[in-house]
Design brief:
The chain is α+β, with helices and mostly antiparallel strands. Helix content is about 35%, strand content about 25%. The protein has a nine-stranded antiparallel sheet. Helix 5 packs across helix 7. It starts with 5 loop residues before the first strand and ends with a helix.
Amino acid sequence: MNQSELYLMMTVTGRDRMPDFIKLYQDKGLHTHTLSLGHGTATQRYMRLLALNETEKMVCLTILTGRKWLEVKRAMSVRLRIEAPGVGIAYVVPLSSIGGKRELMFLTEGQGFEKGAETVLKGTEQELLIVISNQGYSEMVMDAARAVGARGGTVIHARGTGQDKAERFLGISLASEKDLILIVVPIEKKIETMQQIIHDAGPESKAGAIVFSLPVTDTAGMTLRPQSEELEEEPEEEQKEAQKEDTQ
């Protein structure tokens, strides 16, 4: 792990335990998080083996440096005994980029992060854009993304913390209720799409959106060709019918 790079930390734990995790993160200087409800899928037998008493979960997204992750990871072991069954899990995924200098400062305050070259994993063709906007403005975000070729996204309702810092960094007041929008785009369209979202639905708009990206190593079920190419190709059955008419 590169201690100077940025990562997205994902924490999954029961609703009753999440305040303990948030308190630990705040004590370590991490104040901006996005929270959403989840539901565990483990079988009852497996849950009993792990001493898990509930399937309803909370998911917390936090941006932090590799150095801060190592510090938080040690604290989770000591203070929360995270290795014990039923406490929760936390893991990190490398970030590629964050859209906007002010937004970067907002999300990494107090971590001593200095922006360097963007991280791109070798061989990746797609990027996952994660957009956090005020609730009810996901269509504004998607309109911006579609304007530069994006096809669709997935919206998850969430709640933000650390909104008191937003006015200092971004000059606005953000609502705590959030929409989390997930959009997969070709890597060559990533920067354009992020810029369009910031321009049309960024912090100065009602959407108040912040966007960052993660590398996608592979995909399935996604058509990556331009839509115009798809429309030019006829279905196989239509091609056969056309050939019959030509021979008659």
